[in-house]
């Protein structure tokens, strides 16, 4: 008499992703972006020497693609009712295009691929968050913060194997996400309306959204120039620059999670954050001592979180969870 094997219950087709599984996939999707932060300058120096303008554009066109392409993917997913299918296609294109960006191709072609990759990456991430339960939304949000904290240190380690390695490993992660979604075929909770219509209807999200945009824009202004400053002016090696990025982003990630648990009001937090971030940015370009620079950058990360976290918290109060998750 054979003993029956115990099998774990399989997720029913069309069921929303459990919180832990959704968080894992969100972490992998987000990690594919944060891995790149310490690699951009050394990658362009090795593959496209002298193309500093393209180094700035590499991030800018990615966000431009996300801004226009991700909502289009969401609209297609809502119109067809096939969110999982659209997510799979977007994630595959995300990985394939990011891998293509790691190849020694002409700069205009790399920037074109990078723009399209931004649409696939952010579109897949937003659709992924729409396929979990309301209880899974904050867990998935925590996974994005964890990916921010983990991406830069891991990307710095990968640089030892080659400037293209963070991009190529990052390209593999969306493919893992696509494979998991293809195997599970999840669906949204039955009472969930299209995320796009929810955001449009929630007029009150505009105010917090402006603060989030301003904070993200300010950090974007910091990322590429800081790498060039450290390497070209201070002569720091890429591994050290990666560690300095980590001293900024790890406190940012930790404080983004901790600020909502404090009694600090949103106005006070945002004012303190703006002052701290501006002060950090002012002195970061004037300090040559690495230990002192690390302290200044850590203060800047805390300041950025003081702006970002209460803005998201306010947005979460005025729009349903599934709409605010994509922020």
Give an overview in words:
With 327 residues, this protein is mostly helical. The chain has 2 domains: 13-192, Up-down Bundle (Growth Hormone, Chain: A), CATH 1.20.1250; 193-327, no CATH class. 75% of the residues lie in helices and 0% in strands. It is built from 13 helices and no strands. Helix 6 packs antiparallel against helix 10. The chain is globular and about 55 Å long. It starts with 18 loop residues before the first helix and ends with a helix.
Radius of gyration: 20 Å
What is the domain tally?
2
Within the CATH hierarchy, at the fold level, what is the topology of the largest domain?
A: Growth Hormone, Chain: A
Distance between the termini: 56 Å
What is the overall number of helices? 13
| Helix/strand order | HHHHHHHHHHHHH
What structural class is derived from the secondary structure elements?
mainly alpha
Rounded mean pLDDT score: 84
Quaternary state reads single chain
CATH superfamily assignment of the largest domain? MFS general substrate transporter like domains
Considering DSSP H and I runs of 4 or more, what fraction of the residues is helical?
over 70%
CATH classification, class level of the largest domain: Mainly Alpha
Stretches with pLDDT under 50, minimum 5 residues = 197-202, 321-327
Shape: globular
**Strand percentage, roughly?**
under 5%
Looking at the overall shape, the CATH architecture of the largest domain is Up-down Bundle
Record field, number of beta strands:
0
Please summarize the sheet with the most strands. none
